[in-house]
Write a structure and sequence with these properties.
The protein has about 525 residues and is α/β, with parallel strands linked by helices. Helices cover about 45% and strands about 10% of the residues. The chain is elongated and about 120 Å long. Residues about 1-10, about 345-365 and about 505-514 have low confidence and may be disordered.
Length: about 525
């Protein structure tokens, strides 16, 4: 007989890579290296660390997102990722893209030359006009459908009409900036839901979406509210995906077409191309905060007031990479086609750049489904979809509703009108009792007959029938139904209500005979 059980593997059989092909790592001392032909990843904090080994076959990894600035990534690991058509993305939680590496196509000199000349030959101006026009259309749709602000939507439509006459990049930027100001003014007072248990734990300004302009930076960076912190992080994911799309098409993500000024360490072309997709990200976020509460445990505030995301929420948001990639791809291809069409010799590559319309179809719906877990609106605990509260909070809410209803009833019963009505009812019943003549009571209807023959049958009747038969309230009728002895003037009506007759009870009552 075996004395010991077989040792179980400490590793979970569940793949650490999400269904969208994204793996997010964080912590201190992060290591990404090759070990025995596997990509070995180690991350975590203190004793809460994990080690992941991915083989070259069946790993389904497409994006390795790193949120740490402490660790080592080997050249062999980067080569492994490139060979597997996977990308490495280094992000900060405040929405800044530090580094993006991924598979790229060989550089085409004519395409790069066309890209460099686009800002001065008019091609870049038309591309910029198209991108901003699509962005303003998206913002107008958000205002009309999501925020129910037709007046602001009309303002955006007015700025959009002026784009057709804009002859310089500065004119396009001015119209876009004015539209953005009118657009985000409607965001400031959007309420944000929080679990009841978290309300006292959050700053007051976290209860609303707040201004897009942070008081810490004068711009969108260093957000001070959770909504804009989430928006910044998602825009960083979008920027990384757009950069990868442009690189795969042979374009330089850092060489803009004139809409964003070329500066050091800035993906100017990627920022140009992602402009039409921003309203899609904002629509997704608005759908989320309008239907799900945020959790205090997913955010923290720095000493300066900057709102930051915790690693768990960043992992959830990173799973949206595939959605933003599908939305960015057709716009990157549009820019590439326009640049190829401007090359001399009429030798274009428009047909070589495939259309991803089939891939884009349904991506917005996929974005709506990609959101953090469904949580209880009372305590923030994770619950099943279709419920609004966990079991404990549901019981507490029901008890509170009953208590509130009782309190309201007491308040209503203490109004002058209610007290006057109660007094009139008491006087009417007191007068009826004093005017009642006991001699009108049938001889057979004694107290013993009522107690033993009538009361047991009353329990089968509803309180509304008893109340209607003798002209009392339903509360008083309920007490009678439970065995309370009413005034004798009601006995005869109650005996008739339960279906008894004088003939049936004569002779059954004590002291009477047929």
């Amino acid at each position: 007989m075996a004395s010991h059980n077989l040792a179980q593997s400490p590793h979970s059989s569940k793949s650490p890579v999400s269904k969208t092909g994204v793996l997010t790592i964080h912590g201190f001392g992060v290591r990404v290296r090759m070990q025995s032909g596997h990509l070995e990843i180690e991350d975590g904090v203190a004793m809460d660390r994990r080690k992941i080994r991915l083989a070259r076959v069946g790993h389904r990894l497409r994006r390795l997102v790193c949120l740490s600035d402490d660790g080592v990534v080997s050249l062999a690991a980067l080569k492994w990722l490139a060979a597997q058509d996977a990308s490495f993305v280094l992000l900060e939680r405040n929405g800044k893209v530090q580094c993006v590496t991924g598979p790229v196509r060989p550089s085409e000199a004519r395409l790069r030359r066309s890209q460099a000349l686009a800002a001065g030959n008019g091609v870049g101006l038309e591309i910029a006009r198209t991108l901003i026009d699509a962005k303003l259309i998206g913002e107008e749709r958000v205002l009309r459908e999501q925020l129910n602000s037709p007046t602001a939507a009309d303002v955006i439509s007015g700025f959009r009409q002026k784009l057709a006459s804009a002859e310089t990049f500065d004119a396009i930027r001015i119209e876009e900036a004015n539209a953005a100001g009118a657009y985000f003014r409607e965001w400031r007072l959007i309420p944000v839901m929080w679990p009841k248990a978290d309300i006292k734990k959050i700053p007051d300004h976290w209860r609303f979406a707040g201004s897009r302009q942070s008081p810490l930076s004068g711009g969108p960076r260093l957000a001070v509210t959770p909504v804009h912190a989430v928006l910044n992080y998602c825009f960083a994911l979008l920027q990384a995906e757009t950069r990868l799309c442009l690189s795969a098409l042979g374009l330089d993500p850092g060489l803009g077409i004139g809409l964003h000024t070329d500066t050091a360490n800035r993906d100017s072309l990627a920022l140009d191309v992602l402009e039409p997709i921003r309203p899609e990200v904002e629509t997704w976020l608005l759908n989320w905060i309008s239907s799900e509460p945020l959790r205090r445990s997913d955010f923290f505030e720095t000493g300066t007031g900057n709102c930051r995301l915790v690693s768990g929420l960043c992992k959830k948001l990173s799973d949206t990479c595939s959605v933003w990639r599908k939305l960015a791809t057709p716009w990157a291809e549009h820019v590439a086609r326009e640049l190829w069409s401007s090359t001399p010799g009429k030798r274009t590559r428009a047909l070589a750049i495939r259309s991803n319309k089939r891939e884009v179809k349904g991506s917005v719906q996929e974005a709506k489904q990609t959101r953090p877990e469904h949580v209880c609106r009372g305590c923030g605990k994770k619950i099943r979809i279709g419920r609004s509260h966990c079991g404990q909070c549901a019981v507490e809410n029901a008890t509170q509703r009953l208590t509130d209803a009782a309190a309201i009833g007491r308040l209503v019963s203490h109004t002058p009108e209610a007290r006057a009505k109660q007094s009139a009812t008491r006087r009417r019943h007191a007068r009826a009792c004093s005017e009642w003549d006991p001699s009108t009571q049938p001889a057979w209807l004694t107290e013993d007959v009522y107690r033993h023959k009538v009361v047991p049958l009353l329990s089968a009747l509803s309180t509304s029938k008893i109340a209607a038969a003798i002209g009392v309230s339903r509360g008083y009728a309920g007490r009678i139904r439970e065995g309370y002895r009413p005034h004798p003037r009601h006995w005869r009506a109650l005996a008739k209500l339960v279906g008894t007759s004088d003939d049936r009870l004569i002779g059954q009552a004590p002291g009477l005979s047929n």
